[in-house]
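Exercise 7. Given the components listed, write out the predicted structure of the assembled complex. Treat all entries as one system.
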Amino acid sequence: MKNFFNPRNVAVIGVSRDQNKVGHVIFRNLIDSDFKGKIYAVNNNAKEILGFKIYKNVSSIKEKIDLAVIATPAETIMNVVKDCNKKRIKNLVIITAGFKEVGNGKLEKKLADYLKKNKIKMVGVNCLGVFDGHSNLDTLFLPRSRLKRPKAGGISFVCQSGAVGSAILDLASEEGYGFAKFISYGNATVLDESDFIEYLGNDKNTKVICLYVEGVKNGKKFIEVCKKVSRKKPIIAIKGGLTQEGSKAALSHTGALAGKAEIYLGVFKQCKIIQAESLEEMFNFARILEKSIKPKGDRIQVITNGGGYGILCTDAIMKNNLKMALISKDTMNYLKKKFPKIVVVGNPMDLIGDATTERYKEAIFSCLNDKNVDILLVVLLLQTPLISTDIVDVIIEAKDLRKKPIVVVSTGGEFTKVLRHNLESNNVATFTFPESAVKAVKKLVEYYN
Amino acid sequence: MKNFFNPRNVAVIGVSRDQNKVGHVIFRNLIDSDFKGKIYAVNNNAKEILGFKIYKNVSSIKEKIDLAVIATPAETIMNVVKDCNKKRIKNLVIITAGFKEVGNGKLEKKLADYLKKNKIKMVGVNCLGVFDGHSNLDTLFLPRSRLKRPKAGGISFVCQSGAVGSAILDLASEEGYGFAKFISYGNATVLDESDFIEYLGNDKNTKVICLYVEGVKNGKKFIEVCKKVSRKKPIIAIKGGLTQEGSKAALSHTGALAGKAEIYLGVFKQCKIIQAESLEEMFNFARILEKSIKPKGDRIQVITNGGGYGILCTDAIMKNNLKMALISKDTMNYLKKKFPKIVVVGNPMDLIGDATTERYKEAIFSCLNDKNVDILLVVLLLQTPLISTDIVDVIIEAKDLRKKPIVVVSTGGEFTKVLRHNLESNNVATFTFPESAVKAVKKLVEYYN
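Answer.
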């Protein structure tokens, strides 16, 4: 499977002169990307495109090819694939649509049989293909002006819907979420969601696996694989079409027999898959699970510079059946001595509006060393000028001790965004609102329990 | 009350030379702002600050003063206020802390009695004061480098927590939410939340009122006012300290006797106040209520260019007990004739990945004219290059007909953000995720029901 994500070279088959055509966009994207491997363009009807030599077919390329990305019309696919087989290419991404999803199941079956017989692995058909945040390989036919690629990170996303996948990748680029691998597998003609989940279970770059699925292809295989993988790393899933109406819509979308909601939710539970209620939740959960170490328990200490935020955090902690930590007498006395009288040394610990970075540092490290605290929830309201930008370094330093998970809540505009991106880049999960942060903490506690 | 938000002039009392002191920051912010009124600085110990003449006291200013903002220490307050009374200033914002909240209830009582006796209105003490998105008046002591001010709009926010307020204003500036008025009223020494809600009920710039409250000062007055105002415009509220632990935290924050959750929620219901579960929800609800016209019913038509998004919208609609619209035979036949065969003319209506602006236009206007549709939920995934930027004009044109509420879901990065800001500026509510959009639609339907 490695050649799907980190091949030494790629041949794009069907690179049209027309710059709006899928094959052209894929090729141009690869040229513009930081992908280090060699790139070949194939088109039986051109000599040179974008300054690159065009090969009539893959057989006319001399080098051994690790991965072929195919974007020629459905009716040409069998011939193209046979040519790839002649060239002994073992990994194909077929972007092309026009198979089962439009009633052309016969052609798809023929293709599947041929590929299986010749032991060729294939992502597709009718898909966006793959993106790798580390190797920068990318078969997405959406231009970089519209879909920015996210940076490297630990989240991998297996996605049955190309549109959901591309929208999320684009959002992730803006929000600063780091991706390991993205797979849009379309009709799952040969490889299906379970194959990818199994592979990602062993992928060292992948810390957490996200899944958007409308219908699972092989239930038994899915259960077997997910049970195994979820012991190694978290799997977070959304099932599209959970309601009856939604399920009908799924049928006309991917032709997925969506199956009863209860069955899916039962399977998720059985496999220890974390169910997300929304895409927003999915990536909130993914970020905290990607970045946090295992908590020893569920006692949370809130540290804040805004009283109202302390209260909202407390409400959220109680609503989610988590616990407010009770710091030891020693910590309490130490901090009471250190801090002005007006600071509330308790939980929430309200460092109040004039809190400095130094005051945060005292509070964070004291709580980190207190045996009655399992998780730190740090509210940073950066609107007050007395907190300097080195609060970021304090939190990273505290996190690097790897004693307890530290989660940050920070609401604000431009300035806040810059500091949050900095924290996220250093593997600290940050949230805009107390409630979403605490919901994510709940999943962190549950996963490790 | 008008003078709190749109005074002809303002005197800032306690403008220190020290640029980190509250009075100095407030004065500098006013100079830097687009506030059109005259600004006076008062300090009994300086001649000139930031190039402005400094007055020894308000009495030495010749002009009649509409509003005084006071930032001198607590022990000086009585003298300053008496001076203001001599000058016949009827509106005060007192930023100063050091009263009831630190056990100095006696001084606060004395102040309250004096102000009431002399019929002086006062916002404060121990607060951020006010911000007006239209007049640009602003008494916030947080520098613009840290707290960006949001643009003008229809949301007003009455907030018992200064930190919650300032964080939200800063966030709003980044997200492009428009504000009418913001009031941080601190200890509510004279004017309380009910006074502001009543005023905002009659304020033409305010389309929707948001409230963060830990404890209501006068329950009877609150119920009376809110019942009256919520008939005119929506009130959305979060009660901080709903849980027992949260309520304890509120006690040490604002000294608010938080009261039992059930009582608060009962009062909210009785007054037709929309309860939000989180700050995120509050502003999602506020934006849709600010921007949308009254829907005739709860039948929603989903139009999308991504199948997966159509399914997620459908699931969310069903989970929220709303209805999927069933377009008429005529609309169905018309669109089927217009669109390529692969387009799913139904609900969700999947215009598929190669949807153009023109295809969206056909779908949107047909559904707008279909009597079986009450609300349009338009998913715009802008990662595909065939949708041009004039999709924004199509949606604004459709919205301006004022036939049906149109709500947009659009997930993505930089490009998406620009188009969404454009829509928001033109009074179209946009959301990142299907689930949050549908939850907000639910509140829109409920409010007008």
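Discussion: Chain A touches chain B through 80 residues (CB under 8 Å). Residues 379 and 409 of chain A are 5 Å apart (CA to CA).
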